[in-house]
Amino acid sequence: MPVIKTRSRQNILDIAIQEQGDVSAAFDLALSNGFSLTDDPNIGTEVQTASAKNKEIVKFFNTELKNPASRDGVIINKGVGYWRVGIDFKVS
Amino acid sequence: MARTIAEIKKQATDIFMEDENIRTAYELTEGNTFEQEFSSVSFESILFYIVAFITWVLETIFDTHKTDVIAAISEMKPHTERWYANMAKLYQHGFALLPESDKYDNTGKTDDEIAASLVVKYSAVVKQIDTYGHITLRIKTATDTGEDLGPLSEEQLNGVREYFNRVGDAGVALSIDSLPPDSLKMKWTVYYDPLILNGQGNRLDGSAENVIATAIKAYLKQLPFNGTFVLQYVTDAVQAVDGVVICQIDTASSKYGDFEFSNIDTKIVPDSGYLRFAEDTDLTITYIPQSPIK
Questions:
Q1: Which segment of A69-78, B63-72, B126-135, B178-187 scores lowest on mean pLDDT?
Q2: To the nearest whole angstrom, how far is the Cα of B24 from the nearest Cα of chain A?
Q3: Is the reported ipTM for this assembly greater than 0.85?
Q4: Are B64 and A23 in contact (CB < 8 Å)?
Q5: Residue A74 scores a pLDDT above 60
Q6: Would the pTM count as exceeding 0.80?
Q7: Judging by beta carbons within 10 Å of its beta carbon (0-12, 13-18, 19+), is residue A19 exposed, middle or buried?
Q8: Residues in B touching A23 (Cβ below 8 Å)
Q9: Which among B163, B190, B191, B284 is placed 20 to 30 Å from B129, CA to CA?
Q10: Chain B positions in Cβ-Cβ contact with residue A27 (cut-off 8 Å)
Q11: What pLDDT is stored for residue A1 in this prediction?
């Protein structure tokens, strides 16, 4: 069983896609590693994965060296110092 | 049983395609499937996928819940072997039982204290009939030593025996033990790919050493307590190691207690519940270089 480490902003669903090529693997992955499906694992958490369900997709992520990371981790600051004219700086 | 994401999505899209108002609004051709009309990366397709995924998660959770409930019900039934095995794991070392009860009073105790008192980590129950026809339930137990399984101390074992005197069914003869692991001796011949491994079983890239012995020991560790040790399965585990072309077990023997080593024929259930190599020299591997055959 290969063991991988999560990267920044990756959740269980991302790992399922990246390592097994199918999001439906997420449930087994969460169960076998003792996570909840909605847990946000810390960076570098070790996850034991199983064999690929869709090899094409796994191959794509491995060869392109891309890692899906869909967890919402970006903090958008608010206030006069961060608002930008024409985007979110509104004068009413 | 939960439907697959694809099945759920198909059922939803079929209903979507059958709706006359939708067909008119989207200008769809009657009789066409959803996939014929919408791209798999279209907004509609992705939306249906998301809904199907959520439904699938929910259905899978219901499945897991059902399995958990069935397991809880079957374990709660008294007088079964599984009930005894389960009760052994609930023994808390150093805690007094509530009067006339098989429960402990854990009020005021921290989770760490309770976890530390649960010394029986593994248990299995075997029904034994002696030559006179007397039936005894043998409860095999083991604890977790941090890295591996190990026997309970004499003090802990006496505690478990007294505990079963109070919670067990009257009239059921019990024999409770916690033994050191059965000793295993094996001789292997491994034909290895000399481009990946060397003659000592080390990887040429230096990433791992003695990979065959590691795989065999890992297999022994992941066997369930009181699980059957099958020679064929351990061969499969070694065969799966990168760089192994062919592998075969020349001899395999095991012993427990003061008995002599006896040959393992196909499979064996360890007497103590688990098998280990007593000495590193008990596992000998002959390495023969061999180019990949298939």
A1: A69-78
A2: 34
A3: no
A4: no
A5: no
A6: no
A7: buried
A8: 5, 53
A9: B163
A10: 57, 60
A11: 66
pLDDT in tens, B4-45: 999 999 999 999 999 999 999 999 888 888 999 999 899 999
Query: Of the candidates B216, B187, B214, which has an alpha carbon nearest to the alpha carbon of residue B286?
Result: B187
State residue B288's pLDDT score: 93
Distance CA B245, CA B293 (A): 7
CA distance A24 to chain B (A): 7
